[in-house]
Amino acid sequence: MHKEYLNANDSMEDKPIGFFDSGVGGLSVLKEAIKILPNEDYIYFGDSKNAPYGVKSVAEVKALSFQAVEFLIKHKVKAIVVACNTATSVAIEDLRRHYSNIPIIGIEPALKPAVEINDGGKIVIMATPMTLSEKKFACLMEKYKYKAEIVPLPCAGLVEYIEKGIVQGEELNNFLKDKFSHLIYNEISSVVLGCTHYPFIKEELNKVLGEKVKVIDGSLGTAAQLKRLITEKNTRNKKKSMGEVQIFNSLEDEYIIKISKKLLEG
């Protein structure tokens, strides 16, 4: 238990909100948080040195997730967003038990809104192999399997493109066409992005699938949950000015910081 969060003399309002992801993907969630909570300060930690998490073992992902949270704890954050679908699937319950006195928000594939707007076509869920293999995802599938035809689509290799800053172009286009090659495009109603990296390739995905296919991600829902929690706990920052964002990355390379800032501002 981390005693700094129990000190009544500390002003929780002024503390930053922590975000972490296996790399740059969680910036897609941070962008949504900034839109609805612009006055908050944020600390973002991307673990690009160990990306992608989606092909690692459960034990490795748990260990890396705890390391990331410890990094954020040292920066005295008032809430933590696990802006990584794989880490959420594997580690969120353990993290919440261990850090029980700080709000920890996770993310999961936005299957519910996809089912609600479904017009009878297939719902494709793009995600890392680990996210799709975890119990949390199996429970989500079970909940909605009678309401729509849901097709899991493991996308090993896609995170690596985005980590390099490749979010459009012929090479990525061909990669996506190959992933969807066994599906008939006009039978797809929507695509759910089950990895926080994937929203950055929406434009290229629309080129491959066509504009009629709806592309949905869970970033807005996660940001809204963050807002609800800090509002309930009365820890929202009351300053009038825009907040600040600090970006850290385990690679400790200026190039990855430049990519991060470009994705956040884009």
From TrEMBL:
Pfam families given in the database record: Asp_Glu_race (PF01177)
Keywords, ordered alphabetically: Cell shape, Cell wall biogenesis/degradation, Isomerase, Peptidoglycan synthesis
Top enzyme category: isomerase
UniProt keyword Glycoprotein, yes or no: no
EC number of this enzyme: 5.1.1.3
Pathway stated in the Swiss-Prot or TrEMBL entry: Cell wall biogenesis; peptidoglycan biosynthesis
GO MF, any single term: glutamate racemase activity
Active-site feature positions: C84, C195
Positions of substrate binding: D21, S22, Y53, G54, N85, T86, T196, H197
GO BP: cell wall organization; peptidoglycan biosynthetic process; regulation of cell shape
Catalytic activity: L-glutamate = D-glutamate
PROSITE patterns associated with the record: ASP_GLU_RACEMASE_1, ASP_GLU_RACEMASE_2
Superkingdom of the source species: Bacteria
SUPFAM superfamilies: Aspartate/glutamate racemase (SSF53681)
UniProt family annotation: Belongs to the aspartate/glutamate racemases family.
NCBIfam families according to UniProt: glut_race
Protein name: Glutamate racemase
Species annotation: Clostridium homopropionicum DSM 5847
